Amino acid sequence: MNSELNGLGIDGTSVLLKAKSTPAAFHVVVPEHSRKRVILLSREDEKRIGEAVIADMKAQGAFYSDATQEKRVRAIAQRVNAVLPEPFPLNIYLEKDEQVNASCLLDGSVFVTSGLLKTISDDQQLAAVLAHEYGHAAARHGSENVTKMLMQSAGSMYLAEALAASSGGVGQAGTLLKAGYGLGSKYGVLLPYSRTMEHEADRLGALYMARAGYDPNAMVKVFELFQKMSPDSGIFSEFLSTHPMNQKRIDNVKLVIATEIR
């Protein structure tokens, strides 16, 4: 992970040392929540990571053009983005993938799959998905994941170096880190979110939907749709792997709507 970040001009080791010397400076509260966590990345770091992910996807030919769908997604994203505590630049990408998925990267860039757009024709439900993803971005959950990986990789690096030294080997640390924290993680962006993160994004998404003029009950409907779909069907496997769905999440959204949205 550290070597990958170094390639983007982010010195993970230096950031860790700064955090060790002034830990309070890296404690960040989740918007409209009380939970504090450590975030080591700056906004500029988040921008670099987002740009790297998009560049990788472009190089792989992952995106496609559809003026009608792009206009649809952009209009919805613009309304939701406008009510965020810190609105992001409006960068919208359509991904060629029949799996149902969407993501908001660390820099606020949004991509949605062709599978999602085929499955969800209702704009209110699409707004629910985008609002949830913007909830993750506003809460900086991706950066929180990357921070955890940096801390874990630092510990793994020291262990790997000790193992290499004791065995007389060379270069083992880099090999072990690559195996544990490789590019497949998309710099932590596509790692599964914790249950706490999902509940935070659900709540923020419902609040953002309502503030943008959408019906937050659409989030309940789209979550119920996802819950009914089997992960074995293929099209939902990626979304469900990074956003595990259960009845408690649906009940929590209903509670937010009933008690916090007028």
Automatic annotation (TrEMBL):
Belongs to the peptidase M48 family. Pfam families: Peptidase_M48. GO terms for biological process: proteolysis involved in protein catabolic process. PANTHER family: METALLOENDOPEPTIDASE OMA1, METALLOENDOPEPTIDASE OMA1, MITOCHONDRIAL. Signal peptide: none annotated. Its cofactor is Zn(2+). The keyword Zinc applies. This is Zn-dependent protease. Gene3D superfamilies: Metalloproteases ('zincins'), catalytic domain. The keyword Cell wall biogenesis/degradation does not apply. Residues 69-254 form the Peptidase M48 domain. Keywords: Hydrolase, Metal-binding, Metalloprotease, Protease, Zinc. GO terms for cellular component: membrane. Transmembrane segments: none annotated. Binds 1 zinc ion per subunit. GO terms for molecular function: metal ion binding; metalloendopeptidase activity. It comes from the Bacteria.
